[in-house]
Amino acid sequence: MTRMRTRLFILHVLVLALLVVLAVRLWQVQVVRGEEFVTKATETRTRAVIVPAVRGQILDSSGRPLVRNQTSLVVSVDRNALLRMKDGGVEVLRKLSTVLNQPVKQLQDRIRPCGPGISKPCWTGSPYQPVPIERKAGTRQALQILERQEEFPGITAEIQSVRQYPGGKAGAQMLGYLGPVTEAELEKREGLKAAFSGVDLAGRDGLEEVYDEVLRGKSGLRRVQVDRMGKAIGVEQQVPSLAGDHLITSIDARLQEVVEGALHKAMKGAPQADGGAAVVLDARTGRVLALASAPSYDPAVWAHGITTTGYKRLLSEESGKPLVSRAINGQFAPGSTFKVSSVAAMLRAGYPLNGTYDCPGSYMVGDRAFNNFRGIGLGTLSLHTALVKSCDTIFYRSAYEQYLRDGGRNPKKNAKEVFANTARAFGFGKPTGVDLPGESSGRIPDRAWKKNMWALTSATNCKRAQTGYPEVTDAARAAFLKLLAQENCAEGFVLRPGDSANFSIGQGDVLVTPLQLARAYAALVSDGKVRSPRIGWARVRPDGTLVERYDVPVVGRLPISEKERLYIKNALSQVPSDGTAAGAFSGFPMDKISIGGKTGTAEVWGKQDTSWFASFAPTGNPRFVVVAMVSQGGMGAQTAAPAVREIYEGIYGIKRQAVLPDGKPAAKLPKFSPDGTVAGG
Amino acid sequence: MTTRAVAGGRRSFARRAVGAQSAVWRLDGVMLVAVAALCVIGTLLVWSSTRTWAPGSTGLVKKHILNLLIGTLLCGAAAMIDHRAMRAYSPLVFLVSLAGLVMVVTPLGATINGSHSWILLGGGFAVQPSEFAKLGLLLIIAMLLAQPAEGSDRPRDLDVVLALVAALLTMGLVMLQPDLGTALVLAVITAAALIIGGVRKRWIALLVLVASAGVFSVFHFQMLEPYQVARFTAFIDPGVDPRGVGYNSTQSLIAIGSGQLFGKGLLGGGQTTGRFVPEQHTDFIFTVAGEEFGFLGSVTIVLLLGVVLLRGLKIARQCDDRFGMLAAGTIVCWFAFQTFVNVGMTIGIMPITGLPLPFVSYGGTATFANLIAVGILQSIRIREQSFD
Fold this sequence. Notes:
The structure holds two protein chains of two kinds.
Chain A: H1 2-32, H2 34-45, E1 46-51, E2 58-59, E3 65-77, H3 79-83, H4 90-100, H5 104-111, E4 131-137, H6 139-147, E5 155-164, H7 172-175, E6 178-180, H8 183-188, E7 201-203, H9 206-210, H10 212-216, E8 220-226, E9 232-239, E10 246-249, H11 253-269, E11 275-282, E12 288-294, H12 300-303, H13 308-315, H14 326-329, H15 339-348, E13 356-359, E14 362-365, E15 368-371, E16 379-382, H16 383-388, H17 393-405, H18 418-425, H19 447-467, H20 475-491, H21 497-504, H22 514-525, E17 529-531, E18 536-540, E19 546-549, E20 554-557, H23 562-573, H24 575-578, E21 596-602, E22 610-617, E23 624-631, H25 636-652
Parallel strand pairs in A: 2-10
Antiparallel strand pairs in A: 1-8, 2-3, 3-4, 3-5, 6-7, 8-9, 10-18, 11-12, 11-23, 13-16, 14-15, 17-20, 18-19, 21-22, 22-23
Chain B: H1 2-10, H2 13-18, H3 20-26, H4 29-50, H5 59-80, H6 83-105, E1 109-112, E2 115-122, E3 125-127, H7 129-145, H8 157-176, H9 180-196, H10 201-220, H11 226-236, H12 246-257, H13 270-273, H14 285-318, H15 322-346, H16 364-384
Antiparallel strand pairs in B: 1-2, 2-3
Protein name (chain B): peptidoglycan glycosyltransferase
Pathway (chain B): Cell wall biogenesis; peptidoglycan biosynthesis
Keywords (chain B): Cell shape, Membrane, Transmembrane, Transmembrane helix
């Protein structure tokens, strides 16, 4: 019995020890590490649901909506829920495909996360968030899904607000579109980052992208208590969302419509035309009043979640790549519209303003004859007439002379390159800085550019110089290409005499965008200041309070005197009445509204000419600068000039209702009523 | 001392019953208060953890209270039976419990919550014979080892062998269900009885050797179900698979830890309400206490269990006969093991094992067995002091 008592005593000690172990461990778990587990408990017990803020509208200069919101039923797929199913959710997707009338394959494509080797259509958002698959579901479809949840596990239908475009295709590229925000972008954002939500969208192009911060607002947060199965059992915390601000633009919706119509008509009138753009600037302020690109597309395809075929169509050659804005990304040789820069260059180089210049039918540049248009000589001209009649040989000659002065083929150390540098001062060769993303810079083919190009392409060119182009079936073209390759291989780094001559009349390697040309003309006809055009005018709160007004920055000055500037402007003022555009403007009441401008017809090898018309009105004290460009549109006077004429007719109300009856763009921001609606808008 | 024990046995049952007052005086009141407190706390916790889903919200609490009432009656009955009589009936109790285990293996057995260890009685009631088997084995081993060899205070070798046979038989049947947790409790009961019973150290060494070999072969020949292996893996590293096998331990730690010092109050536990911890009214009921009553509450439960254990040990030490001492000591070891393993698994210091927390967890048969054991302890206590 003593032995037993001893052993019981040992047991006693053991039991006490175990109790102490438990108590110590409990202290450690509950008191020492308590906070940590409270945090973890909150994480497991609650789900943060992002309540997206209502995105601000994009308004025109009178407060008319260019982009507004509309609520619609959105059907989303929780991919992770599907993956957990035995068949990977195929059965559910099949049922869904019948309800939504979309192929199963398409649904599968759209819910897979984007990644290396997986391109659109795919889900750019977080792989853990439901993927919106149908953004304009009908009530019937939504009910079918909601009422038979057991048949549609992982599928939800809820009300969301989506973008709506009252103007349809008008200005689609400029307005941009929304796409699901990526996790990386969300990381960078300030404020609520509690959860990544598939319903969070970000501007992906155009104004939506540039002014994303303004329009987005602040997402709200609803922290929902859930049980083990993820079923919501209550709301723990609620932070209301803050609606985004509105963006007032200087765009006039009705003018935009006119511009779109004119461009469309011009494109239709030129059978080969494959793209066009038109820009209307407020000549005095540099604000953009309309910006159109053709072909266009209906941005609603984004708002409702783009389909596989829809996305492919937007990128295809067949549809003319409507996603690309020709106004800021279309880079074309400007043709004679460029002569305003060349005249300025001549003046800078010391050619007299009031001198007379010989305009022969042909001029020898080095060993090659460069012809006037149709080889016709125009006699002795002033610079004024040279512009009005668009003489080429005067520019060939001066450009060649300056070329030689710089040292010709063996350039001096500090070559002046006056033509190239003047073009730069006019704002060519670099982005205008307009408030749109991804703008192209155009190209000024000077000596430095030649060298760079040669460094990049000589290897290919020299190889082609040997092998030729056996894959090109057209023998003449193949021979031409081979010759070109040989030439480029041998002396591609040299700016040749012909290059300088071509440059002076806006042909050859020089490229400009329609917006660059428009702002150069705006500088020329207003005050000589080169501006960075702006579309955004002001940021206002949803109740109409002004938050910020966006100024139009001045980024340069034309390198000519006021006298020279007015001289050129006056010359251009005569073009539509007496010059190359006289035909296009015949019958236009020039006595009431005088229009100035310059046609441009740029040759493109193997294609139709690019048709340009750059204009301003009224000539006395210009209010508007209108530029139109139609790629493969033929002659400037033929296609672009009539389009511009139609735009002016719309503005001033000639043979139709006036868009801007007093001939002035809106000068004041639209007024908002206290309830946030636009008075009279 | 044998004479004293026999003298006590001579008192008629009727007199003991009538002379309740004196018997009540001899009861271990402290232990009973502790047990009662645990049962009350357990009832609250069962309510808190089942109210969101049980039929009529109080369905399970009502059943639990009914179980406690029946258990109290059984406890009283056990306390009234002279433990020496109990000793005589031990073989019978053991055989009945064995029969129960056999019935589970036959088509009469039923599977509830994934363990095939039940016999349905109808009317929504079911018993778990393995819980009674703990009592049966405990009693038979205590009986066998209570008769020391001639001129020695150690049990006879034959009795030790018989005890081991009884243990292996019971454990074997339990493992057929399979119920690893209960089998472990049976092993502990056997080991405890052998050690307390004064078995020679070489026996103990041999048993340790055999047990080690057994554990080794269990793992080596993969006799465990995959989920059981997974539980051990998850115990060693809960991060292995926090949504799978590690889920239970992770979630129970979160629930208990988030209770902090004072707890979130009864019914205030979000983890409990959300049912993040599985089996939170049975095996994981301690997590509810941890979350809603905090450190103070959960330590109180541990202390109350400690009171039961230490009072039990006191009863064992003060007992004058080997059977009483063995039975009491073994019961304490049983409770101690279950307490430590159950609380330990919820706070991440023991692997997950399907064992209920004595007096607190929901579960009819376990409650009956536990309260009967308390009755036995009281019975031993009452008689040991008969001649003081």
